[in-house]
Amino acid sequence: MNRRGFLAFLCAAGAGLAAFLLFRTDEEGEVRSVLTRLVACVNKEPGEPPYVQMGKMRTLEELVAWQITAAVASEGEPVVFEREDMLRAVGAARAACSRLEVTLSDVRVALNPGKESAQVTARIAWTLEGPDFPLPQSPAACSAQFVKDIADDRWKLFRISFH
User: Fold this and answer.
1) Mean pLDDT for each 10-residue chunk of the chain (163 residues)?
2) What does the pLDDT read at residue 83?
3) CB under 8 Å to 98, separation ≥6 — which residues?
4) How far, in Å, CA of 26 to CA of 103, rounded?
5) Are the beta carbons of 64 and 85 closer than 8 angstroms?
6) How many helices (H) and strands (E) are present in the chain, helices listed first?
7) Which among 88, 161, 100 is positioned nearest to 131, based on CA atoms?
8) I need a surface site. Which of 5, 86, 91, 98 has the fewest CB within 10 A?
9) Distance (Å, rounded) from C-alpha 150 to C-alpha 64?
């Protein structure tokens, strides 16, 4: 291949790569747009009742276990929490608070899951509102109260933020 042919080949390859990257950026923008609209629908102005109840999504304990697992896991190493351990840790850490804040980092979000689609990596923070735990209490007592409050559907999803 002569020098001109090689340069033409490089230009064509560069144009193809640029078109691919531009297309991927547009797809990721679409995913982010969908997520932004979702967040806007869930978040409500202060003083309004919570929009989503946990019982209509996942149970709170599943959500918290999933997010704590993701937060403390080393890269590529899943961490499994036994139910009681997870509840005891959450109950003890947030014993005097009416809001539970958990963050899931590096979330892979796909548009049209199951098909070839764009994925973006994001950080999603969830804020949950619930009853205050009276102090002082042992971790076991906090855990028992936490389980009861979940069963009574007293914890509500208050806010989602997407970064």
Assistant:
1) 46 40 47 49 47 38 45 41 45 46 50 54 58 52 57 60 55
2) 43
3) 129, 130, 131, 132
4) 27
5) no
6) 4, 4
7) 100
8) 5
9) 12
Question: Which residues, in sequence order, are bridge partners of residue 122?
Answer: 107
Token pair recorded at residue 102? 């958990």
Which amino acid, 35? L
* 41 burial level (CB within 10 Å; 0-12, 13-18, 19+): exposed
pLDDT at 8: 43
β-sheet bridge partners, residue 129: 99, 156
Q: Give me the pLDDT at residue 95, please.
A: 40
User: How much is the pTM?
Assistant: 0.31
Residue-level pLDDT at 66:
44
Residue type at position 59: T
Residue carrying the six token digits 């102090």:
135
Residue 12: per-residue pLDDT: 43
* C-alpha Rg value of the chain to the nearest Å: 22
8 A C-beta contact, residue 52 and residue 42: yes
Q: What is the CA angle 90-92-98, rounded to 5? A: 70
- Which of 103, 82, 98, 95 lies closest to 143 in space, CA to CA? 95
DSSP H helices, the chain, are 3-42, 60-72, 83-93, 139-151
What sign does the CA torsion over 17, 23, 26, 27 have? negative
